[in-house]
Amino acid sequence: MGNVKDLKAYEMAFDFAMEIFYITRKFPQPEQYGLTSQIVRSSRSVCSNIAEGYRKRKYPQHFISKLSDSDMENTETQVWIQFALHCGYIDSEMASELKEKADQIGRLLGYMINNSEKFL
């Protein structure tokens, strides 16, 4: 295994975090330190936890723990997407697209957790 950037889960999580960043730039100013910062932070944490775990993959339990943290942050991001939808900052089509991407990332993380030996 080469670089963390070669992992599909990392690539998708990074692209997803960047998409979230660009979407949230349109959120109202009063949300800058609320919803906007929370959703950007949690979406970025998905790929950062993958990277941290990958760097420590020599230690299987640490690797799995960081992937689990990544999955948790991915789930948190989905909650913030629901808030953005219900606050009227994104429409239902955008929310569905984002949810599907988060679900895909979650499935990849689940595979990596359940098959960690393939990544060590």
Report on this model:
The protein is mostly helical and 120 residues long. The protein has a single domain, classed as Up-down Bundle (de novo design (two linked rop proteins)). The chain contains four helices and no strands. The radius of gyration is 15 Å and the shape is elongated. The longest helix has 27 residues, at 60-86. The chain has helices spanning 8-24, 32-55, 60-86, 92-114.
In terms of DSSP E residues, the strand content is under 5%
The average pLDDT score comes to: 96
- CATH fold call: de novo design (two linked rop proteins)
What's the total number of strands? 0
The geometry reads as elongated
Number of helices in the DSSP assignment: 4
- The first-to-last residue Cα distance is 8 Å
| Name given to the CATH architecture | Up-down Bundle
Report helical residue fraction.
over 70%
Describe the largest sheet.
none
Q: What string gives the helices and strands in order?
A: HHHH
CATH H-level superfamily title? 23S rRNA-intervening sequence
| Number of structurally distinct domains | 1
Q: Uncertain regions: pLDDT < 50 for 5+ in a row? A: none
Radius of gyration: 15 Å
Global structural class: mainly alpha
CATH class: Mainly Alpha
Give the key terms.
120 residues; single chain; 76% helix; mainly alpha
Give the helix/strand layout.
Layout: H1 8-24, H2 32-55, H3 60-86, H4 92-114
Summed up, what is this model?
The protein has 120 residues and is mostly helical. The chain is 76% helix and 0% strand. The radius of gyration is 15 Å and the shape is elongated.
